[in-house]
Design brief:
217 residues, single chain, mainly alpha, 2 domains, 9 helices, 0% strand
Length: 217
């Protein structure tokens, strides 16, 4: 009697899947850099990756998903180092500002990709909310949540609202500032830089929108 065939190792299967995802995203990004994001087609990406077009669409139904996978991978690689730096005993607003300055520098270098990425993020977040899962999330929510928890532990932030809720609100402010920066045409007066836009959301998140005593009306 023949022995049953061994069941494939699920860990190995997942590693192979991740390698395929990374390979496809890296191939796509190389094409985007060489030819321009708008000019590259899904068919070109599949051909350059030496995979069937159906395989590409099974993993990434749209070009924006490839871009998101690439960017989220870059964030995941940077996250451990960021966590070490952000764990230092600094006030909440200073730690948040430090990270947002790093993020602004990164976004400036990727500006030509930011509109399709941000649009995709909003659509992916909406779909994930309907499915009640975390697919399509960038990893920023983890960073913001840890910052919020540290601020609550130090007594700088209110504790009557859950850290997850505050982190979600902060992330929406972040995405809103990014969209405002992208939509500013830069005509007439100099447009605010992304660093300035992010500085405004730190001020708003920490101090609120209420008028301050002595401020100009």
């Amino acid at each position: 009697m023949n022995s049953p065939a061994p069941t494939p190792d699920p860990g190995r299967r997942e590693r192979k899947r991740q390698q395929t995802l990374d390979h496809l995203a890296a191939t796509a990004f190389a094409l985007f850099e060489a030819e321009g994001y708008e000019a590259v087609t899904m068919e070109q990406i599949a051909a350059a990756a030496d995979l069937a077009k159906g395989t590409l669409y099974n993993h990434f139904p749209v070009k924006e998903a490839l871009l998101a996978h690439r960017f989220h991978g870059e964030l995941a690689q940077a996250l451990d180092g960021l966590m070490v730096r952000l764990a230092e005993p600094e006030p909440f607003a200073r730690r948040l500002s430090q990270w947002l300055r790093t993020s602004a520098e990164w976004c400036e270098r990727r500006r030509s990709y930011m509109w399709p990425y941000v649009r995709y993020r909003f659509l992916a977040s909406e779909a994930a909310a309907r499915r009640r899962d975390g697919d399509g999330r960038s990893g920023l929510e983890r960073l913001f949540r840890l910052l919020i928890l540290a601020g609550q532990a130090s007594g700088e932030l209110r504790r009557d609202l859950p850290a997850g809720q505050l982190a979600d609100l902060l992330q929406h402010l972040y995405l809103g500032a990014l969209m405002r920066w992208l939509a500013t045409p830069g005509e007439g007066a100099p447009a605010p830089t992304l660093e300035e836009e992010f500085a405004a959301i730190v001020e708003l998140f920490v101090h609120g929108a209420a008028a301050r005593a002595g401020a100009a009306p």
